[in-house]
What does this fold into?
Amino acid sequence: METYFQKTLICLLVLCSLGSIINAQNVHDTATVQKPLQDSMLTTEVQKSKLNYKSLILPAAFIAYGVAGLSVNKLKQLNLSTKDEINEHQPKKIQLDNYTQYAPAVMVYGLNAMGIKGKHNLRDRTIIYASSQLIAAAFTMPLKYLVKEKRPDGSNTLSFPSGHAATAFSSAQFMFREYKDTNFWLSISGYPFAVFTGVYRMLNDKHWLGDVVAGAGFGILSTELAYWLFPKIDNLLRGKNKVKNSLSSTMIMPFYQNKIVGIGLVKTF
It folds into this structure.
């Protein structure tokens, strides 16, 4: 007979996986509908810079659940009962969650190296992924010190939200965004690693259930914001190069020769 602990982990696995896949499928369907409408480069660029608010529903719900778990009695009781079941049926602690949080991102770079190209080149996807991790850290680190929730093992007061879960789900969402247009099932293959990471943060007695769910929400949100911000960051970086190249290739210079004053144009091809 299944224990309450097993049922809780199974439910968490199913809900997170289904939620992420449904969210991914909605974004995929939206992109499929919009694609025939992109009849010019200008339309494509405008669509890239728009934030798809539907993709924010799931992370917002995860974050709301985690925040509610800090004060709503029934959710706090669920956190405690989950911890009690973990302690009663304590599996062997492993530290794989320190590595699986990065697995989806590593898979993206590995697949590209094997010739299975994603949506962006090395430079662009690196900027996007780095941005997502900076955004995730900007969300989670201040909250840890503001909320000051004690970890289940009592080691410190930096439990909420889970930084590992945020990294894991931001990485999984990064993989989804890179491959959703070419191979949908491949694009969602990073989510099981994210769920594994979140579950093992609880098994290792480092986080409450609400911490992990909130971390997942912040992770997905961070990647969505990174993709939204990328065209702006890219334009800023390329804009500096354009100015630099423009100055080096074309120069207007005044001159004075044989008592004649004029303006000369120097063009480098």
Observations:
- Strands lie at 250-257, 260-267.
- The mean pLDDT is 80.
- The radius of gyration is 24 Å.
- Residues 4-267 form one domain.
